[in-house]
Amino acid sequence: MGYLGGFLVTFRQHGRKNRVTTQYSGGRLFKRKKRSASAMDVKVEKPERLHGRHVLNRYEDGMEKCIGCELCAAVCPAKCIHVRGADNDPDNPTSPGERFGWIYEINYLRCIHCDLCVEACPTEAITETKLFEFSFTNRKDAIYTKNELLVGDDGKPRHMPWEDWRPGEDQHTSAWMRATASAGDASFVGVVSWAGERGYGVRAAEATQAEADSSADTSITSDGTTSSSAQTKSSVTH
Description:
By secondary structure, the chain is of the alpha+beta class. The protein has helices at residues 3-13, 71-75, 116-120, 146-149, 175-179, 209-214, and strands at residues 28-32, 39-43, 54-56, 81-87, 99-107, 126-128, 143-144, 218-220, 226-228. The protein is built from six helices and nine strands; from the N terminus they run αβββαββαββαααββ. The longest helix is centred in the first third of the chain and has 11 residues, at 3-13.
């Protein structure tokens, strides 16, 4: 193509007709009516399986699910997780079994939200919410410790000052893992095989593909177009 030919391609892409990308809007969808001055700023609906900020879960009785096995740290490709286990106090155990997660840290300057830590966890202690809008003013805040990651007595994640939580972002956490337990086996889709959680009980599994397809109510409108009443619902609500 040559040196000048590359510049020509760039100039062509800047035209309105040939533009293939759009300006980043912070996850917002801008709607304008007939180019009027008034505009609605609406947040784009997030996918059920979005990988966002992690949480450490508790059982329904309040005990921690993390057993300090360090499998999440071992499988992490970004090496952003640091875990150290300790022996449980026989008289006042923190988690079922012999050990619990004494130290748990995630460095979000490294995390790539691949969800491998969730799939490796044998007790489903760590899952990912749909929160992705959080930033830091210093590097120390980017390292979440157990105090920030562990859910409260109500099962809700702790909200840090720099996190922009929206309703429902703690629902259906790590949906793909929950839909395909155990360990991502597709034959477990739609089957609940995990323990209940503090504040939520036993979370519902995702619907199977057949159930999702059958739930779509397709009809023909008066103008001859096709509409569906279940375009975004692909999971069982609870």
